[in-house]
Amino acid sequence: MFTLVQISDCHLAADQQASYRGENADRNLKRLLPGIAALAPDGLVMSGDLSEDASPESYARLAEIVKPMAPKRAWLPGNHDDRAVAAEVLAEPDFLAGPVLDWGGWQLVLLDSAEADRPAGVVSDARLAPLEQLDGERPALVFIHHQPLPVNAPWIDKYPLTQAERFWAKIDSQTVRAVAFGHVHQAFKGEKNGVVCLSCPSTVANSQAETERFTPDPTGPKARWYRLHEDGRWQTGLISAGMN
Protein backbone atom coordinates (compact mmCIF):
# COMPACT_ATOMS: atom_id res chain seq x y z
CA MET A 1 0.00 0.00 0.00
CA PHE A 2 1.20 3.48 -0.89
CA THR A 3 -0.02 6.41 1.22
CA LEU A 4 -0.22 9.68 -0.67
CA VAL A 5 -1.07 13.19 0.49
CA GLN A 6 -2.27 15.99 -1.80
CA ILE A 7 -2.02 19.63 -0.82
CA SER A 8 -3.24 22.50 -2.97
CA ASP A 9 -3.72 26.23 -3.22
CA CYS A 10 -1.18 27.14 -0.55
CA HIS A 11 -0.86 30.76 -1.80
CA LEU A 12 2.37 31.55 0.05
CA ALA A 13 3.85 35.00 -0.62
CA ALA A 14 7.29 36.57 -0.36
CA ASP A 15 6.10 38.30 2.80
CA GLN A 16 5.35 35.46 5.19
CA GLN A 17 3.11 37.78 7.21
CA ALA A 18 0.89 38.48 4.20
CA SER A 19 -2.83 37.79 4.45
CA TYR A 20 -4.82 35.69 1.97
CA ARG A 21 -8.60 36.01 2.42
CA GLY A 22 -7.93 37.03 5.99
CA GLU A 23 -5.69 34.04 6.76
CA ASN A 24 -1.93 33.53 7.02
CA ALA A 25 -0.79 30.99 4.43
CA ASP A 26 2.36 29.82 6.24
CA ARG A 27 0.65 29.36 9.56
CA ASN A 28 -2.33 27.46 8.16
CA LEU A 29 -0.12 25.13 6.11
CA LYS A 30 1.90 24.32 9.21
CA ARG A 31 -1.30 23.58 11.13
CA LEU A 32 -1.75 20.55 8.87
CA LEU A 33 1.66 19.07 9.66
CA PRO A 34 0.59 16.91 12.65
CA GLY A 35 -2.29 15.34 10.75
CA ILE A 36 -0.09 14.62 7.74
CA ALA A 37 2.72 13.21 9.90
CA ALA A 38 0.27 10.84 11.60
CA LEU A 39 -0.36 9.18 8.23
CA ALA A 40 3.38 8.69 7.54
CA PRO A 41 2.80 9.26 3.82
CA ASP A 42 5.09 7.79 1.18
CA GLY A 43 4.46 10.60 -1.30
CA LEU A 44 3.20 14.17 -1.60
CA VAL A 45 1.60 15.89 -4.60
CA MET A 46 1.20 19.68 -4.59
CA SER A 47 -1.50 20.51 -7.13
CA GLY A 48 -0.97 24.15 -7.98
CA ASP A 49 -1.34 27.73 -6.76
CA LEU A 50 1.58 27.02 -4.51
CA SER A 51 2.41 30.72 -4.45
CA GLU A 52 0.24 33.82 -4.46
CA ASP A 53 2.88 36.11 -5.96
CA ALA A 54 5.14 33.60 -7.80
CA SER A 55 8.15 34.81 -5.83
CA PRO A 56 11.28 32.67 -5.37
CA GLU A 57 11.02 33.33 -1.63
CA SER A 58 7.55 31.80 -1.43
CA TYR A 59 8.59 28.63 -3.26
CA ALA A 60 11.73 28.28 -1.17
CA ARG A 61 9.77 28.59 2.05
CA LEU A 62 7.17 26.12 0.80
CA ALA A 63 9.94 23.64 0.01
CA GLU A 64 11.23 23.83 3.57
CA ILE A 65 7.77 23.41 5.09
CA VAL A 66 6.81 20.37 3.03
CA LYS A 67 10.12 18.48 3.01
CA PRO A 68 9.27 16.59 6.23
CA MET A 69 5.86 15.59 4.89
CA ALA A 70 6.98 12.71 2.65
CA PRO A 71 10.17 11.25 1.13
CA LYS A 72 8.77 11.61 -2.40
CA ARG A 73 7.43 14.99 -3.47
CA ALA A 74 5.93 16.24 -6.73
CA TRP A 75 4.21 19.38 -7.98
CA LEU A 76 2.25 20.91 -10.82
CA PRO A 77 1.50 24.58 -11.51
CA GLY A 78 -1.67 26.56 -10.96
CA ASN A 79 -2.77 29.86 -12.46
CA HIS A 80 -1.04 31.89 -9.72
CA ASP A 81 2.30 30.14 -10.24
CA ASP A 82 5.25 31.08 -12.41
CA ARG A 83 6.26 27.77 -13.94
CA ALA A 84 9.89 28.76 -14.56
CA VAL A 85 10.46 30.23 -11.11
CA ALA A 86 8.82 27.26 -9.42
CA ALA A 87 10.85 24.79 -11.49
CA GLU A 88 14.10 26.50 -10.56
CA VAL A 89 13.36 26.42 -6.83
CA LEU A 90 11.52 23.08 -6.74
CA ALA A 91 14.24 21.28 -8.65
CA GLU A 92 14.79 17.56 -9.05
CA PRO A 93 15.63 15.23 -7.38
CA ASP A 94 13.90 16.69 -4.31
CA PHE A 95 10.74 17.74 -6.17
CA LEU A 96 9.44 15.98 -9.28
CA ALA A 97 7.22 17.45 -11.97
CA GLY A 98 6.12 14.29 -13.76
CA PRO A 99 4.44 14.09 -16.16
CA VAL A 100 3.98 10.43 -15.09
CA LEU A 101 5.30 9.01 -11.83
CA ASP A 102 5.44 5.34 -10.89
CA TRP A 103 4.55 5.37 -7.21
CA GLY A 104 3.38 2.30 -5.35
CA GLY A 105 2.49 0.42 -8.52
CA TRP A 106 0.23 3.26 -9.63
CA GLN A 107 0.70 5.71 -12.49
CA LEU A 108 0.39 9.25 -11.16
CA VAL A 109 -0.20 11.71 -13.98
CA LEU A 110 0.61 15.38 -13.35
CA LEU A 111 -1.07 17.51 -16.00
CA ASP A 112 -0.37 21.20 -16.57
CA SER A 113 -3.51 23.32 -17.07
CA ALA A 114 -2.05 26.71 -16.14
CA GLU A 115 -1.83 29.65 -18.54
CA ALA A 116 -0.14 32.95 -17.70
CA ASP A 117 -2.56 35.72 -16.74
CA ARG A 118 -5.61 33.48 -17.09
CA PRO A 119 -7.57 32.24 -14.07
CA ALA A 120 -9.23 29.47 -16.10
CA GLY A 121 -7.41 26.33 -17.19
CA VAL A 122 -6.14 25.40 -20.64
CA VAL A 123 -5.14 22.05 -22.13
CA SER A 124 -3.60 21.08 -25.45
CA ASP A 125 -2.76 17.87 -27.26
CA ALA A 126 0.82 18.17 -26.01
CA ARG A 127 -0.28 18.63 -22.42
CA LEU A 128 -2.68 15.70 -22.65
CA ALA A 129 -0.18 13.38 -24.38
CA PRO A 130 0.80 11.56 -21.15
CA LEU A 131 -2.74 10.18 -20.92
CA GLU A 132 -2.21 8.33 -24.20
CA GLN A 133 0.98 6.69 -22.94
CA LEU A 134 -0.44 5.00 -19.85
CA ASP A 135 -0.09 1.29 -19.24
CA GLY A 136 -3.62 -0.08 -19.38
CA GLU A 137 -2.66 -2.92 -17.05
CA ARG A 138 -1.90 -0.64 -14.10
CA PRO A 139 -4.17 1.81 -12.25
CA ALA A 140 -3.73 5.55 -12.72
CA LEU A 141 -4.57 8.66 -10.71
CA VAL A 142 -4.67 11.95 -12.65
CA PHE A 143 -3.83 15.28 -11.02
CA ILE A 144 -4.66 18.65 -12.60
CA HIS A 145 -5.09 22.09 -11.07
CA HIS A 146 -8.37 23.24 -12.62
CA GLN A 147 -11.70 21.50 -12.14
CA PRO A 148 -12.70 19.50 -15.25
CA LEU A 149 -16.38 19.54 -14.26
CA PRO A 150 -18.62 21.99 -12.40
CA VAL A 151 -18.51 21.92 -8.60
CA ASN A 152 -21.80 23.83 -8.27
CA ALA A 153 -20.14 26.98 -6.95
CA PRO A 154 -20.65 29.84 -9.46
CA TRP A 155 -17.87 32.01 -8.01
CA ILE A 156 -15.21 29.46 -9.04
CA ASP A 157 -17.04 27.56 -11.79
CA LYS A 158 -16.56 30.60 -14.02
CA TYR A 159 -12.85 29.67 -14.02
CA PRO A 160 -12.90 25.97 -14.97
CA LEU A 161 -10.76 23.80 -17.18
CA THR A 162 -11.83 25.20 -20.55
CA GLN A 163 -12.45 22.75 -23.39
CA ALA A 164 -12.77 20.04 -20.76
CA GLU A 165 -14.22 17.73 -23.40
CA ARG A 166 -10.71 17.40 -24.86
CA PHE A 167 -9.50 16.23 -21.47
CA TRP A 168 -12.32 13.72 -21.00
CA ALA A 169 -11.82 12.30 -24.48
CA LYS A 170 -8.38 11.11 -23.34
CA ILE A 171 -9.51 9.60 -20.02
CA ASP A 172 -9.89 5.80 -20.05
CA SER A 173 -12.15 4.83 -17.15
CA GLN A 174 -10.68 1.32 -17.17
CA THR A 175 -7.25 2.70 -16.27
CA VAL A 176 -7.90 6.04 -14.53
CA ARG A 177 -9.43 5.43 -11.12
CA ALA A 178 -9.87 9.09 -10.21
CA VAL A 179 -9.18 12.67 -11.28
CA ALA A 180 -7.89 14.90 -8.48
CA PHE A 181 -7.79 18.69 -8.72
CA GLY A 182 -7.41 21.85 -6.66
CA HIS A 183 -8.38 25.44 -7.55
CA VAL A 184 -11.89 25.35 -6.07
CA HIS A 185 -11.03 25.98 -2.39
CA GLN A 186 -13.66 23.54 -1.13
CA ALA A 187 -14.31 19.83 -0.74
CA PHE A 188 -16.02 18.16 -3.70
CA LYS A 189 -16.70 14.61 -4.84
CA GLY A 190 -18.40 13.83 -8.12
CA GLU A 191 -18.31 11.51 -11.10
CA LYS A 192 -17.87 11.90 -14.84
CA ASN A 193 -17.90 9.12 -17.42
CA GLY A 194 -17.50 6.51 -14.70
CA VAL A 195 -14.47 8.24 -13.15
CA VAL A 196 -14.46 9.61 -9.60
CA CYS A 197 -13.62 13.34 -9.43
CA LEU A 198 -12.20 14.78 -6.21
CA SER A 199 -11.09 18.21 -5.13
CA CYS A 200 -8.40 18.94 -2.62
CA PRO A 201 -9.37 21.94 -0.49
CA SER A 202 -6.89 24.74 0.16
CA THR A 203 -4.26 24.71 2.87
CA VAL A 204 -4.96 28.39 3.62
CA ALA A 205 -8.63 29.36 3.14
CA ASN A 206 -11.71 27.50 1.95
CA SER A 207 -15.29 28.25 1.06
CA GLN A 208 -18.31 26.34 2.16
CA ALA A 209 -19.37 24.04 -0.65
CA GLU A 210 -21.82 24.95 -3.40
CA THR A 211 -22.23 28.65 -2.65
CA GLU A 212 -22.91 31.55 -5.01
CA ARG A 213 -20.00 33.55 -3.55
CA PHE A 214 -16.91 32.60 -1.58
CA THR A 215 -18.30 31.92 1.89
CA PRO A 216 -15.58 31.23 4.47
CA ASP A 217 -15.53 27.69 5.82
CA PRO A 218 -14.89 27.92 9.57
CA THR A 219 -13.40 24.41 9.70
CA GLY A 220 -10.10 25.77 8.39
CA PRO A 221 -7.34 24.45 6.12
CA LYS A 222 -7.38 20.94 4.70
CA ALA A 223 -5.43 18.41 2.67
CA ARG A 224 -6.42 15.09 1.09
CA TRP A 225 -4.99 11.61 1.63
CA TYR A 226 -5.09 8.51 -0.56
CA ARG A 227 -4.26 4.89 0.15
CA LEU A 228 -3.32 3.21 -3.11
CA HIS A 229 -3.23 -0.60 -3.37
CA GLU A 230 -1.38 -2.35 -6.19
CA ASP A 231 -4.51 -4.30 -7.14
CA GLY A 232 -6.26 -1.01 -8.00
CA ARG A 233 -8.25 -0.57 -4.80
CA TRP A 234 -8.01 2.82 -3.15
CA GLN A 235 -9.41 4.97 -0.36
CA THR A 236 -9.37 8.69 0.27
CA GLY A 237 -10.31 11.25 2.90
CA LEU A 238 -9.55 14.74 4.17
CA ILE A 239 -6.98 15.96 6.67
CA SER A 240 -7.98 18.90 8.86
CA ALA A 241 -5.98 21.16 11.13
CA GLY A 242 -5.73 19.69 14.61
CA MET A 243 -5.80 16.06 13.47
CA ASN A 244 -3.03 13.80 14.75
TrEMBL record:
UniProt keywords (A-Z) are:
Hydrolase, Iron, Metal-binding
Gene3D superfamilies assigned to the protein according to its UniProt record, in alphabetical order = 3.60.21.10
Concerning Pfam families, the annotation shows: Metallophos
Q: Name one GO molecular function term.
A: hydrolase activity
Q: What is the similarity comment for this entry? A: Belongs to the cyclic nucleotide phosphodiesterase class-III family.
UniProt protein name: Uncharacterized protein
Q: What is the lineage of its organism?
A: Bacteria, Pseudomonadati, Pseudomonadota, Gammaproteobacteria, Chromatiales
